[in-house]
Design a protein that fits this description.
Layout lengths: L2 H8 L37 E6 L4 H15 L3 E8 L12 H19 L3 E7 L8 H14 L3 E5 L9 H14 L11 H4 L9 E5 L6 E4 L4 H9 L2 H4 L4 H15 L5 E8 L19 H5 L2
Parallel strand pairs: 1-2, 1-4, 2-3, 4-5
Antiparallel strand pairs: 5-7, 6-7
Length: 293
């Protein structure tokens, strides 16, 4: 089991992140490295979002409340899970194929709890994600197919320790979003299959050490916990009562404050190029089959 999974077992507090002091606001990053501009308005929907994570259960821990909130508001949310988490166990009787099947089903169950529309598994081996063109191309293709307004992924740029899969998925996804998915000459086969360029306007980087965007998930915390509990292979014998008890203890110590999920926000929102102005409702009848290639 990875060090990240051990930390999840030790720290229920990871999903009980309660606001203590006002966040230091960091000016929004720009895609071109230009001077900071005024912060953009809060992300509002309903809209379309894609959550791109390294392992089954990553999303539930770092953004499950945000996903639950968006789904309750009518957002169209899809997951892309890069690996099947086939190494995350201490069970000496377990083998990778069996664990991968278990964890994929656990992730599907969690998606049903949250209201996620679809969960797409790319099937890479756990621990072996690399920053390379094939994975970037797969992510570009999925972005062009499903055309999300907002993407949540790992912060691959943070300065502290980071799981290699989280780091690589974060950087590959950032490269796919800017500039690859927007420019038609990258991965031209997509255009041949009817998938035009697309612009993602908002990115939320999870697991960051420099948060500047906060989502209040208090009203959706129970749904988040229910989704986490779907990952039975990763959480041991914990029950919902364990999470509730820790929440009650936290309230007793600190008072009742909002439960939050924190991200670094990358707001792109550049005017689309002329060739991008197209009907984005249905990319093409042949695309669904082609996207799986």
């Amino acid at each position: 089991m990875s060090k990240d999974k051990k930390n999840k077992r030790r720290k229920l507090g990871d999903i009980l992140h309660v606001h203590k002091d006002a966040e230091t606001k960091v000016p929004a990053m720009t895609a071109t490295g230009a001077a900071p501009v005024a912060p953009p308005p809060p992300i509002a929907g309903p809209s379309a979002a894609m959550v791109i994570m390294a392992h089954p259960d990553d999303a539930e821990f770092v953004c499950g409340g945000t996903v639950a909130k968006w789904c309750a508001e009518g957002w169209d949310v899809r997951y892309v899970v890069i690996t099947s988490g086939d190494k995350g166990t201490h069970d000496e009787s377990m083998h990778p194929e069996k664990l991968a099947a278990m964890r994929e089903e656990e992730q599907r169950a969690a998606c049903r709890v949250l209201g996620v529309k679809e969960c797409i598994f790319l099937g890479y081996p756990d621990g072996f994600t690399v920053d390379e063109h094939e994975l970037r191309g797969q992510i570009v293709r999925l972005l062009r197919l499903h055309r999300p307004e907002v993407v949540i992924t790992w912060d691959g740029f943070r300065h502290s320790f980071n799981h290699r899969d989280h780091r690589n998925v974060g950087t590959v996804t950032a490269d796919a979003i800017y500039p690859l998915v927007r420019d038609r000459l990258f991965y031209p086969r997509d255009e041949e299959d009817g998938l035009g360029p697309h612009q993602v306007n908002e990115v939320l980087l999870a697991g960051t050490d420099n948060a500047d965007y906060v989502v209040d998930i208090t009203d959706h915390w129970h749904t988040k916990v229910d989704a986490i509990l779907c990952h039975a292979s990763q959480i041991g014998n914990r029950q919902k009562s364990d999470f509730i008890r820790q929440r009650e203890e936290q309230i007793a110590r600190e008072g009742e404050k909002p439960i939050e999920e924190r991200f670094r926000r990358w707001s792109i929102r550049r005017p689309p190029r002329p060739e991008q102005k197209q009907d984005e409702t249905t990319p093409g009848a042949n695309v669904e089959a082609a996207a799986a290639r």
